Amino acid sequence: MIRDLTDSEARAALPLKWGAVPQGTVPAWVAEMDFAPPPAVTAALTAAVGRGMLGYSCHPGTAQAADLNAAFRGFAERHWGWDVPADSSTPVGDVVTGLRLALDELCPPGPVVVPLPCYPPFRDVVALAGREAAYVGLDPDHDHDDRAAAALDLAAVEQHLEAGARTVLLCHPHNPLGRVAHRAELEALRDLVHAHGARVLVDEVHAPLVLPGQERFVPYLSVDPEAVLVTSHSKTFGTPGLKTAQIVLTDPEETQRLRALPIAANHGHSGLGMVAGAAAWRDSDLWLHALRSRLRVQAEDLRDLLAEHLPQARVRPLEATYLAWLDLRAYGVADPAAVALEHGVRLAPGHDYQPGLEGHVRLNLATSEQRLVQIVTRLAAALT
Ligand SMILES: Cc1ncc(COP(=O)(O)O)c(C=O)c1O
């Protein structure tokens, strides 16, 4: 059910991921999968294009947006047992745009707590919103077999809240560490944040990618209805180019205020993105099931390949996402991604996620088995 793209298909389908590397180099950097999208998504898009549906997308709150909202509610109920309030999603251009809009319009003034390492645009979005970032370390080098390690350091968050921070920007599940926070951690964060009159802004774009064998995902809004959720079907169902994400708020009045913003503040979402989103959330469960099983196998294969070719690499057990976080410091190379590029594989450098951090890379394992072998053996050739 999960169809691997050939090199030429991938090059045509994923212009950023594959277009940024020369022929012969394996791209394992940006978070896109080398798999064909779910058949239901492709069919819905093909039908929409056949109907000539290329006009402006509708306003938030009208029929098409309502369909996306209903499809997301169904998904959240089936997969997470979360009863999302009716009509609580507002379409936005993409997740990053949604985070920026939320900081501008929905989050209290003051510095923003950002756990590090983080998805790099988190830092940019905070800066562009004119906010100060208050960083909290997640310790990327903790004991990799200790699940409690790399949890959010609530004492450090509290210090920032006491010093005036009023927003906590959470990535749940976490990119790049691939960790999923459990209910008790989320509840403790909620209590801390509420005690300081602050708000959590949570990015759950990787939530459908919690891998088999993990506890059921707990959506942050289900424990803290005062938070702001930004999510999208894009990472899981392979549609980031269609530019559609959702801001979810549980307070209907706040939703109305968000939808009443001038078009110039929120105009980037696309009609085709909404069509894809509805088909992804509503009609792609079997495909998603197959995807998660496949990613679990890929993660196990990666561990085996590393044990064979790079035995001193430390890799976090992957709980979610298709992005593995590798600690390669034992090989004594400050920027392993730069050296790997010279050997025909493009990885994401660790310092992109935490400035100054040496010896780490993020490796995208959502590719064919053959390419995964090439990625590891070429990295090994670069480091040894
Ligand atoms: C945590 C996280 N948020 C947001 C994005 C980007 O989402 P979008 O393309 O919808 O802005 C990514 C992409 O990898 C991501 O990992």
Model description:
Residues 33-378 form the Aminotransferase class I/classII large domain. It is an enzyme of class 4 (lyase). It comes from Nocardioides dokdonensis FR1436. Helix 5 runs parallel beside helix 6 and helix 13 (285-309) packs parallel to helix 16. The protein has helices at residues 7-13, 15-19, 39-50, 63-80, 95-105, 121-128, 154-162, 183-195, 220-223, 234-237, 252-259, 271-283, 285-309, 336-342, 350-353, 369-383, and strands at 26-27, 89-92, 112-116, 133-137, 167-171, 199-203, 228-231, 245-248, 314-315, 323-327, 345-346, 348-349, 360-364. Helix content is 42%, strand content 13%. The protein has a 7-stranded mixed beta sheet, sandwiched between helices. A 4-stranded antiparallel beta sheet has the order 9-10-13-12. It has a two-stranded parallel ribbon with strand order 1-11. The protein has 384 residues and is of the alpha/beta class. The longest helix is centred in the last third of the chain and has 25 residues, at 285-309. The chain has 16 helices and 13 strands. The protein folds into 2 domains: 7-30 and 286-383, Aspartate Aminotransferase, domain 1 (Alpha-Beta Complex), CATH 3.90.1150.10; 46-284, 3-Layer(aba) Sandwich (Aspartate Aminotransferase, domain 2), CATH 3.40.640. Residues 31, 94-96, 119, 171, 175, 203, 205, 232, 234-235, 240, 245 line the site of pyridoxal-5'-phosphate (PLP).
